Amino acid sequence: MIKIGITGGIGVGKTYVSNILNKMSYPSFNADLIAKKCVKENKFLQESLIENFGEEVFIDNNINKEFLKNIIFNNSKALKKINSIIHPYVNVEFDLWCKQQNSSIIFKEAAILFETGANKKLDFIICVSSNLDLRIKRIKKRDNKSTKDIMKIIDNQMEQSNKEDLSDFIINNNENQSLLLQIQNILETINEDS
After folding, report:
1. 28: which DSSP letter?
2. Which of 55, 80, 127, 145 supports an S-S bond with 149, CB 3.0-4.6 Å?
3. Model-level pTM?
4. pLDDT in tens, 136-147
5. What's 127's DSSP letter?
6. Is residue 37 within 8 Å of residue 86, measured between CB atoms?
7. Is-contact 106 28, C-beta < 8 A?
8. Domains of the chain listed by start with CATH number
9. Going along 15-122, which residue ranges are E strands?
C-alpha cells in the first residue's frame, strides 16, 4: 500500500483535492477531523489536555475553542504541546484506518504533517499551494473570519514555501490549472516509480 500525504497551509484547498481523490475512488483520511473526534471522545486525551492546560480547556464536556485559541495564538510552545498530546492518538487512528482499506494507494490529509513528524510514515507528500490573496478570500468565505484573524493563523503555521520544499509534489490551486490533470500526472509518476 502506497501512503501519500496531502498538506499545505490553511485555505490552499487540501480538502478540495481530497474530495477529487475520493471521487476517483481513492480513500482519504482527514487528520484534522479525526483530531477533533479524538478530543471529543477520548477520555485519556481529555485528561491529558486538562492536566497540561487546566479545567478551562473544556466547557460542559466540549472543547473551549476560545480558550485554546488564545493559548495557541500567543504561545508557540503551547501549540507544540497540544499537537504532541493530540497527534499520537490521530496516528493510532490512521494506522487502524489503513488496515481497513483495500486500495493500493491511500491518502492522509493533514495541515501539520511535517510539524508532527507524520511525514516519516508516508511514502510521498503532495503540497497543495495557492497564493495568499486567494487563500484569504477562501477562508473568509468558509469561516467568516477577518483578515487579521486569518493572518494570525497563517503566521502560526509553517511557511508555505518550506512545506513545498519538503514535499515530493506540488499542486497549484490558483484556479488557473486543472487540478484533476495535476493529480493524474502525480499518480502516473508514482505508479511508474513503484
Report:
1. E
2. 145
3. 0.91
4. 999 999 988 889
5. E
6. no
7. yes
8. 1-27+105-194 (3.40.50.300), 34-100 (3.40.50.300)
9. 28-30, 58-59, 62-63, 105-109
